[in-house]
Every structure is written in structure tokens, then in C-alpha cells.
Design a protein that fits this description.
1 helix, alpha+beta, 128 residues, single chain, 16% helix
Amino acid sequence: MKKIIFTVIAVIIFLLVIVINFSEINTRYECQGNFTRNEEVKETTIYLKLVDYRWWVSLWKKQNHDAVIWIEIPNTFYMVYHNIGKADDVYLIYENNQRQHGRFSTLSKNLYLKYLEGTFNGECKEIK
């Protein structure tokens, strides 16, 4: 009986370690591109952090989204997008009112984002 209890406790601890350490994948990108507002085009660098949740996270999460994206333009803009849908290699970024706000492709590394009454379109590279 003690052996069974010990085995059950060991399995529970093992599963907790897996859930705690491997439930999300964090990837950071630096994106170079153009910000366009009112016909004015400005070269801009955006930093993006993508937190991709594993499938099992949806078993206990109340929100129905696949990832979280942090966007930062140093000294200018910072935003966290929680409403992210995933379609293969493309992350669809939505506003709270469910309108699409942008997209990020992990295949082409392209980011398109509407913010500050303008749009950003650029290419990203993974950074550490």
C-alpha cells in the first residue's frame, strides 16, 4: 500500500513539474518596418514577445485564446494583447471588441499591426 501511495505522489509531482515548466513557450522578436499614419511613413522598430500556450492550458483557463503578445516601441508605446487566435503559423491579434487588430506570422516573420491611428508593417527576427 505504501508503494502505491508513493507512486501516486511521485506521478502527481512529476505532472506538476511538467505543467509548471512547460505550459508556455516564450519567444522574443525585433521587428523592423514602417509605421504609416496620415500618409506619413516612418521607419520604426517594434519589440514583440509571444507567449504561446500549450494545448493543456485550455483545460483550466477561462479565456479562450491561444497566446499573449506584448508589443513595445521603446519610449513610445506598450501594449499587451490577450485576445489572440492561432491559425497554423499565423497569430491573429484582436481588440477587446473582437475586431482584428493585426497579425503575426511565425513562418514569414511578418508583423502587421494597427495602433495609434496608424499601421505598422515589418519583418521580424528572433532575439534572445
